[in-house]
Amino acid sequence: GKNKAYEAGITAGDVIRDTLGRKHGACATLVDSVECDFSHIIEKDCRLEPILEDSDAGLYILRHSCAHLLAQAVTELFPDAKPTIGPPIEHGFYYDFHMEPISEDELPAIEKRMKKLARQNLKIEREEYDNSTLREMFSNNQFKVEIMDDKIGHDIGSSAYRQGDFVDLCRGPHVSSTSQLRWFKLTSTSQAYWRGDAKREPLTRIYGMCYATKEDLAKRKRQIEEATLRDHKKIGKEMD
After folding, report:
1. Whole-model pTM?
2. Name one Pfam family in it (predicted).
């Protein structure tokens, strides 16, 4: 690592761009080993490292940001839908919504809206609030309020992330713009329950996959197609 002096108040992203150039391939930073957004303001001496998009940590952040992009698209297309939780998972992400069930035929329209929002290059901004302000902001979504009420296992702090008109309760970190989310595909829907409890509200879960490169996404699509083909052949043999 290089030692370099900067004025206090510079952002982590500015340091990454200055040291690695515009094609830095990073989606967030490690500031003294803590994951931070590019917008994180550097106030004192620290060790700063890039989190590259194609690293495990980078893919986790890309997929988490893609879940937010999905929630933004769904709430624009289905205004009554209430987003609940949307984590990154292996190969991609999912988001659970309290809404009327949808069929997989509707996924292409949602994906199209996600791509439109990505092209709009919306800034993804971290905002800090006290808990009472957050509760007011999410007062029309009982699921988010319940997450705030139940701090155990949900160290949400007091941050939200905004992109365009969409705001979500989140610790982050996230990519700095929707334009960084390019290589994704929605794959399926299923039914879920709030808190995984069949006695609670039924939810619609939408799954997607997300990668750092076009090649990696294509490779994953091929793997799924080949596995499906193998399953069909196996079923065919069993029926013979």
Report:
1. 0.91
2. tRNA_SAD
